[in-house]
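ARCHIVE ENTRY
Sequence with per-residue tokens
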Amino acid sequence: MRLHAEGMIEDGSGADDYAFNSDCKWLITAPPGKVVRLWFDRFDTEARTDMLYFFNGEGTNPASMMAIFSGPDIPPELRTWSNRVLVWFLADGSNQHAGWRMHYRFENP
């Protein structure tokens, strides 16, 4: 999914646990000259298995990886170094958890 306005992303489960075998990507694009600030108010995934990846830019090149999060703890705030960030959520077929919700805003570098 491509996003061009400030807002919120979540795993899509609402009050339920997230779906088995999730594989979802969001590309957030801020206006030129801006960066993206991201923060969580909810986070609970299967530790070391169901992962939320962040890549600076459009692709999943390991060199552009900013962070990987999993487990029950709220991750730290992130800030990109460009105007694009790719968010990728991958979950396997066992042990669902409550999921996550993340907010993002466009800011000056």
